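Re-run with default settings, no changes from the original entry. Doing this only to confirm the output is reproducible before filing.
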Amino acid sequence: MPTHRSLPALRPTTCLAVITLFATLLTGLRADENYFGYTYGSETLPKGRWEIYQWATSRTGKADGSYRALDLQTEIEHGFTDRLQGSLYLNAIKHDISRVTDFSDRNQVRFNGLQAALKYSFKSPYKDGYGLALYLEPGYKRYSAKSGDRVDIFFIEPKLILQKNFLEDSLVWAVNFSGEFEREHNLDEREWESELELQLSTGLSYRFAPNWFAGIEALATSAFERMHLDALGEYGLFAGPNLHYANKKWWATLTVLPQLTGWPETKGHRDLEHFEKLQVRLKVGFNF
């Protein structure tokens, strides 16, 4: 009878090394993904890892005329530790405006300042059952996002990030609470103005196929003049679908957010003076 040679047994140390390597790779993939366009997840990059990604946010539609704006943002991230990551953003902005009430006609693309950010993860949804992170972002912008007018804007934005995964990580839910403290210098009138912007965003995304997630995202934003909570200037509510794809080398996320309602109302129960009819954001990231 032919003899059959049995496979050599794996040593416990070898098994442990394989499991550790697999867990490290899996954690790296999870940490690099952005499931949502507007809502941040609580994970950070592993120590020593880098990521670069490009944001493109289209904002279109006012109460009258033709209004198209495009926000372009290049972000570089680095993991300083397994819990702390830093980011640097370079911004550009494009406005194509014609015959919109209270807006100057323009068709221009310009450099729009920079931002830096730190993000610290206290809890991981993959290790602790839920995710908790704090995010802090100071920055400077050179043009008004709404009108394209030349201004100097200095701001700082703290953000609280919560994340919970379900169904063996096939269903991802995230919530962000943020406040942006802003000082704006109007170069024409030579005046400084203060504003507080509060935002609540949430997203729910489900893995319907390997590497593919689809879901819904919502964003509620409001602004208060002179940073007083009793001086509400405007608010807007957006909600719509999102789609996310990721592999080992790169990922992409697309979110489409129409404005559902807003105040002060200008047309169809929406605020089309301070916000747009539709926002569409595409993010593409590369890991290295």
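The first strand starts at residue 50 and ends at 60. The longest helix spans residues 12-32.
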